[in-house]
């Protein structure tokens, strides 16, 4: 069976050459190394954000067992580690461009938005641990009514079980 990177790589190569040449300020996107880096970066990030993160979020609501919380936490942290590898590849490509365009001076928002998303993802495990400890104390939903109005899909599992 082919690895997810091999399966998703053609999609990254199809999308990325035009985007990458603008985003990374002149890194020679015709080289095999650059195309490989873009493909692996795109495949890892797509695999994490399209498959692994949503699957980990869904499993906690589908499997109603005590141990599923720990499985969910480990799943999401492993997925975060994979995303950090993809993020590292993106940073490497930005910093090794021919024109040495810095991450924040890039004319493309992709590196900046990606950095913000990864920073927020690094905070997420702390929020999850706090949420779980509050849930254990209350044995009921820890979401306020305002949050349920603002982000109803985030609490879909609690509502579906009522």
UniProtKB/TrEMBL annotation:
PANTHER family: CYTOCHROME B561 DOMAIN-CONTAINING PROTEIN-RELATED, DEHYDROGENASE, PUTATIVE (AFU_ORTHOLOGUE AFUA_8G05805)-RELATED. InterPro entries: DUF2427. It comes from Akanthomyces muscarius (Entomopathogenic fungus). The chain crosses the membrane at residues 36-57, 69-92, 112-130. The keyword Signal applies. Residues 31-128 form the DUF2427 domain. Residues 1-20 form the signal peptide. The lineage of its organism: Eukaryota, Fungi, Dikarya, Ascomycota, Pezizomycotina. It comes from the Eukaryota. Keywords: Membrane, Signal, Transmembrane, Transmembrane helix. The keyword Transmembrane helix applies. Coiled coil: none annotated. This is DUF2427 domain-containing protein.
